[in-house]
Amino acid sequence: MYKAIVIGVSAGGIDALGSILPTLPVDFPIPVIIVQHISPVSDSFLSKHLNSICRINVKEADEKEMAIPGVVYFAPANYHLLIEEDETLSLSVEDRVNYARPSIDVLFETAAYVYNKKLIGIILSGASKDGSEGLKKIKEQGGLTVVQDPETAEAEMMPKAAIAATKIDHILPLNKIGPFLVDICKRNRKSQTSTILHQGFLSA
Amino acid sequence: MDVQVTSNQQPATSNPQHENENIEINLLLEAIYLKYGYDFREYAKAHMKRRIMHRLSISGLDSISEMQNRILNDQPFFEVLLLDLSINTTEMFRDPSFYRTLRKEVIPVLKSYQYIKIWHAGCSTGEEVYSTAILLKEEGIYDKVQIYATDFNHKVIEKAKEGVYPIEFIKEYTHNYQKAGGQGSFSDYYRAMYDSVILDKSLKENIVFADHNLVTDRVFGEMNMIICRNVLIYFNRKLQSNVIELFLDSLCHGCFLCLGSKESLRFTGYSDKFETVNEKDRIFKKK
Questions:
Q1: Looking at the annotation, which residues of A are catalytic?
Q2: Considering only CB atoms, which chain B residues are within 8 Å of A203?
Q3: Residues A133-157: pLDDT tens digits?
Q4: What are phi and psi of B124, to 5 degrees?
Q5: B241-274, pLDDT tens digit by residue?
Q6: Could B49 and A64 be called an inter-chain contact, meaning their C-beta atoms sit closer than 8 Å?
Q7: Nearest Cβ partner of A68 from B6, B9, B49?
Q8: pTM (2 decimals)?
Q9: Does B42 touch chain A (CB under 8 A)?
């Protein structure tokens, strides 16, 4: 039963995310947190654009807010995005990691720490090696690793580096990733519903 | 019973190794506080953990507990860790749009005061302080301003006092300065020397650099403007509230608080004590 999805993407992100995110329903049961490499002076154009074409809610992460289901969070430009033990989102301005800020490794490493094996980590198109170490951490904690098939990627360096770094559970062409997530989380929902009923019973 | 309304009903998965690490980190921060008086206990943990684990991995020590023992008995080693834990990434005219908005919406109000006190809280190595100084000079009000630039890290304050920066950043700083609405030429404010630039000492005349810890120290004066950018993000919610309360107590009515471009008062419990001057650049005014 997964509790969160983290996605890392660089060059080719607009198209890759434009293919995946619109497939997610408005009540997608777990939060999706994304680092898209962007220039430090970018505004929130990408998250606003995706929000307008998706059913699921897409926004830039606000610091200290809780990562909740039904929302896709983007790291803001020039800040690293981290996940806290209590599942709230934190920002930092530490040095660039793999020349990037936001860095995928930073998000993935903190997410692996918090969600352990209940995490899905996805690496998409990009011309960088950022994310490989992070994906490796996710695998070490028992999480599920997914990489976009390099043949379908606008920039294949990042998916290839991820594949070389650790065991990948699924290498999927871009158009299969969205449906894969919807499907795996449908099964998620079934088991979550029974948990909520149980909890409700206990607190009555 | 307090029930959190989220469909992730159980706490994030437990993992004995991580639980132990978290305990060790809390003990380490407690040790630092008890021994040296620096209070990192309410800082946002994910970032602290990264910094601690990074130092651990390059120090050759085997565990956080071993590092705790070392910092208690080896002050120079502690000072190295302290530098790791002080967040030092800054640049001149960072977020140029902030400085443009300052010129447009804040300076005209400050001009109406006979004497202006500005507090740069968490000033790190000083780049943003000198940026403010340049802006005040160009707006013609530097002479009636007193700037207090503080940070809890003494080494970093010493660097800030020098006003010497690596020449490799000059191109970026010049670009930022221009985008911030700089009215002169950025090179008027420094001279180059080997691989450094030395900022003009006229910029330092009305700046006092001092040690001050936002967590443990109290109000030291009444300010017309407080600039504290990208410092609060490192604090947990409780500490953020405490610091905003400190700022409220340090500000005159109708005076300004400037935060980092993604920081907000939303979770601090004090947002109703401020009105928003500029949402995009996070400039607020005490009601």
A1: 10, 37, 130
A2: 1, 3
A3: 999 999 999 999 999 999 999 999 9
A4: 55, -135
A5: 999 999 999 999 999 999 999 999 988 899 999 9
A6: no
A7: B6
A8: 0.91
A9: no
